[in-house]
Amino acid sequence: MTELEIRAAGAADMEDILALEKLCFRPPWTAASLAAEREDPDGLLLAASRGGRFAGFCLMHRAGDQAELYQIAVRPEERRNGTALALLRRAEAWARENGMTEAFLEVRVSNAPAVGLYGKAGWRRLGVRKNYYVEPVEDAVLCGKELKE
Ligand SMILES: CC(C)(COP(=O)(O)OP(=O)(O)OC[C@H]1O[C@@H](n2cnc3c(N)ncnc32)[C@H](O)[C@@H]1OP(=O)(O)O)[C@@H](O)C(=O)NCCC(=O)NCCS
Fold it and tell me: Which of 29, 66, 98, 132 sits between 20 and 30 A of 40, alpha carbons compared?
């Protein structure tokens, strides 16, 4: 398989990221809010590509010594190739290297691929947040991971 490249997202990646954002999330983040995270020193926006083609992205944010995974998405035709796991591991490494000690995320209870991904990456299920999501309304599973060396 062609090698996967993961890098800090550049301005040239934003169109692809926004298109995938709109495909995957309701309501989607705006171009302005994604661009603000890219420029924020507390934000980490990573882009992945395979064979020169954009494959996916993830967005993590620092809140003191905690990291929050805001978004992770892979283009449908690129899924099940290990792209999300590689993005997640890179984001966790960034958080660890920058002094964050634990990380959190929310995921829709019905999102089996994402729940599987986080379980495989060693995240623990911490609880349920009732009616956390809109469009459609749904509970979130809160997951966390200690970021030990
Ligand atoms: C969730 C998502 C990011 C996974 O991306 P991906 O690149 O296909 O994931 P990976 O190939 O890295 O898979 C890693 C592991 O996750 C789990 N997984 C991934 N897709 C899965 C699926 N469809 N069903 C069950 N488990 C799945 C598996 O444990 C997998 O390991 P394996 O392939 O060795 O069994 C992708 O499905 C996606 O973009 N979904 C839409 C956006 C979204 O829901 N994001 C999460 C918001 S919380």
Answer: 132
Residue 10: which CATH number?
3.40.630.30
The tally of domains found in the chain comes to 1
Distance 88 CA to ligand 1 centre (A): 11
Tell me the residue range of the domain where 32 lies.
4-146
With a Cβ cut-off of 6 Å, ligand 1 is lined by 24, 72-74, 79-85, 107, 111-114, 116-117, 120
Q: What pLDDT digit, counting tens, does each position of 24-69 carry?
A: 999 999 999 999 999 999 999 999 999 999 999 999 999 999 999 9
Report the alpha-carbon angle 18-75-145, nearest 5. 85
